[in-house]
Amino acid sequence: MQQEITEGKRRIAKNTMLLYVRMFFMMAVSLYTSRIVLDVLGVDDFGLYNVIGGVVAMFSLISGSLSSSISRFLTFELGKGEISQLTKTFSASFIMHTSLAIFLFLLMETVGLWFVNNKMNIPEERLFAANIVYQLSILVCMLNLTQVPYRASIISHERMNIYAYVGILEVLFKLCLIYLLLYVPFRDNLIAYAIILAVWSIALQLWYRYYCKKHFIECKLHIERDRSIYKRLLSYSLWDFIGQFCYTGNSQGINILINMFFGVIINASRAVAYQVENAILQFSNNFMTAVQPQIVKSFASGDTDRFFQLIRESCRYSFYLLFIVSLPVILEAEYILSLWLVEVPTYAALFLRCIICITLYNSFRDPIIKGVHATGNIKFMNLTSSLYSALTFLPVVYILYYLKFPVWVCFVVQGFNVLVCSWFELWSLKREIIFSIINFYSCIILRTIMVSLVCAIVPMLVIGWLEPSFLRLCVTIVVCVLSSCLIIFYWGMDKSLRNNVILLFKSKLHF
pTM value? Predict the structure, then answer.
């Protein structure tokens, strides 16, 4: 058993490192290409592209709920060693996704198309381009639905090196995209941008399918007639759908409310902030992607002690990983955006700070949610956390916007909702295993936040001492990383882990 735990830790470390290699390539090019895209498309078209994509994302949330469902069931069967059941689950999931793709196509071509053309705040001269972007987004969405079982198989088998290789290819593609947008005289850059991204997405999905069929035995399709498998998948997915509906609906619904009350320029500000936030979020997401299969497999094998230990450690260290890279961005938001973008949209820096703070707290929630999903009993969590968020977030923000409150008030409401929802999620986990919620808050969440506040003291002194400049940015980054790493090492880590890190460094340095 101890050998299996050690091997699991090594696999987590190896997969995390592979995902970090992928992330560094993708983050560097993504931030640079976003700047060029914003410059080439202009603020209005950039905001338009993101808001149209948001409409499709609202309809494609079905894909998200099923993706989580399929990944959980495939990983669970791998943890139990049930190959026959694994094959049945994959084929059943593919049939379900194909059926849903057809249904979603009809929904987006009727209700969605009407909404885009009649309710969205789109300049009349850009309506044709908006419809082209919408149709291409639908095409990619349909293929993404049928792609979900293949993507879930790769994660379940913990083949994170595949994502690293594809990340390098994606970097090369985006670099080519930059030169196309800069030097090829397209009649309409927005339409060209949407077409190129759609072609890339389709090619990438075809490659993933080829790899899965070649390497994973369960990816050989057949007509599965076992109704009990469909029943289990649909039952789980139905409750997960509620959670995905609330999350995606809130995220994209705010985008639409901002569009209705403030226009596409403010949409561009929010899109820019999320571009940076998504790049930063990769630091903790890579860790969670690597550790998630271990959480599911430990529960499937009945090792609840390791299961809960993985959740606790994931909460703490996913926050630390995210915080180390977030702190200099929070402190230097205006200057970083001015270096990155030719024209910084209004409110972009404020939005960025608010989004990062909320995302930092959400890094505590993600391992807890993954843990509840691993148990398979997600009904209570989605009936409480997700429904509470759905019933309070968008309606309250709509009323506040209607009453002429400023655009940033949505983040105040979202921050309060995040705090309440995290309590519901912890209570859902407590229904499956025995632990103290109060102890979890004090020893994991509050202690981690206190450590992070101490980490911010020295960098804030640097900000107050130096004038805004590239030198101050460099000094701030160095001070943030060094002070955070030292303080986290001495006060943020458990003694056992700290000793393991010391032994690891000694062995590598041959002390």
Answer: 0.69
